[in-house]
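Human: If only I could read backbone structure tokens as easily as an amino acid sequence. Underneath my words sits a plain record pairing an amino acid chain with its backbone structure tokens. Take your time, and here it is.
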Amino acid sequence: AVTVVGASDLDEEIELAARWARAQVEGGAQRVGVVVGDLAGRQAALRRVFEDVFTPGARCIGANAERAPFVLAVSRPLSTYPLVDAALSCLALAQGGASSLLAGRLLRTPFVRGAQREQSARALADARLRAERRERWDWLEMERWAGVTGCIELEAAARAANGLLRQYRGRATPSVWSERFDAVLRALGWPGERTRDSVEQQTLAKFQATLAELGALDGFVGALDLRGAVRRLRQLVAATRFEPETPPAPVTVIDATTVAGMRFDALWVAGLDSTHLPPPAAPDPLIPLELQRRAQMPEASAAATFALARSRLERLVHSAPHVVLSWPQREGDAELRRSPLLDGFDSLSPEALPTAPVRPLRERLFEARPELLAERDERAPPLATGTPRGGARIFELQSRCPFRAQAELRLGARPLEHVGPHVDPMERGKLVHRVLADVWAQLRDQATLAALDPAALERMVRESTERHAVQSLRPATRHKGRLVTLEIEGTTRQVLRLLAIDRARRPFTVKQAEQDERLEIEGITLRLQPDRIDALEEGGTLLIDYKLGAAHRASHWLDLRPGRPPAPQMPLYALAHARGLAGLAYAVLSPGAVEYRGWAAQDAIAPGIHVYEHLRRRPGHLPDWQSVLAHWETVLRQLARQYLHGEAQVDPLPQECTHCGLSILCRVHERPLAAQQEGEDEVVDE
């Protein structure tokens, strides 16, 4: 009997196949097959679904390993197995010049000496490594780092490996390198001390056999240096396909290309939509097309491909007494159609299909959850007045989410730093700030800027950018050097565009730039550092804050919710310099825009800095400049009191959780979503 079933999407199709396979096994079938296209690419998702249906307890943390009644018949490169990847990472670090990303992986791997006993110390070492952003790692640097961070066993292992590596200089044959690699890995305690399961034991044996294959290349490649030997081993391991042996199981999940000739008691064939059956023609690009067609090569034309697909489907249909052919109706947002080759078979709805009444583990765990005692505790212990850490960020976080302010600034709860081959946005911001402070320390006023020759100005900016980029970005590697070169060009161009705007402004003098100052508010003493304060010729001062993102708007200085402006830093600066304040503005330096965005008390100071009272705004906003300053003082004092009193409600502003890594701590996503307020007031900057 052959039946056609249409599933709503790819996920439901695989879950139906797993539940159907379990029903067949429970009904007495000894050999059940599930044919899936792209088995290698979907291996993880398939294993998760079949474990959920057949052995849901195996997916619990700390569960004992149990024999699964299914097997995924797919091999993958030996290099993708964690135990082998750890060995290759150890050898990559031996070459030197490795990234901090690789060093962090070795700090977290369980496959080197003392990994379990020093688990906590190495996790802290990895977190510290991310914060310091070091480059060019080798085992000498790892030995030093392990000693600094208290990872004693890792330090000893690295010292032993370094002792061997000092002896392994120069070129040698692959057979010699094979023995050397084995010695280095043993010195590092690879593959670790924990008990290995069957898959890891087989993987270890296969890697050792591949290491022996490296030694058989003496007559083909000659003598190699360390880097060349590691590269050869990587190539061998990546080219070696490996599938651990598993005991026979009643259910076999197999790829469509390897199922030919097999017999089953029941068979499910998935993915039979019109885009995959028949597949598009795929002629050989190295053989003339006409020659392929005359030779009737199977995939040379649409007709030949159609005939081949029909014969394969007929073979599958006759591979078992009971066959189910399924197709997904959707793949993502795309609607699919069933293959025309299925038109001659009877159809069934998914509900009419005999499947095991298995419910997903997540649903059963949720229903069996214990009844918890709900207690709302939204206040941390009060904080004594003084100089709490955080500075102006206290007000920003308390406004955006009170819980985040208390958790991040008082408890030190922060997400781990991201490590990658890029220039960190914080470092990029520091570079721009230092260059502008340096340039204005030389210029001092707008008159000097206007009188300076453009070529001399560009030379001044470029020299300053190059000097500060080398100091702050530290281009220690070739890759980092190229990135720093791009940063120098981009920063120079953006700073010159901002200076061109300043050149056209009315005369002013830079009163201070990047200077520390103190402000006391509600008993909190803050250290502020405004980016720049201009003294205007007509009187008054202009506060300027440099921003690298194009999303910064002056409207963020006003309340998004009552008493909660998204960006209270500039209002805080305004409170410190309220006397004689003529305006305040962001100086936005982004790839798409270099411009001022701000407000002024009476006169338009520069393009993009608008007189506040001339702005188009909706009813309910503050009517004039003095009202704005008074409102800011009230709001900032209120935020200071809330922080000191320990107010820690999980109450983020809209979209705030997108930029916060503490959701696992505050569990904000477990709360019912509040209805979004419509028609929020907003000041229009233009």
Notes: Residues 387-686 form one domain.
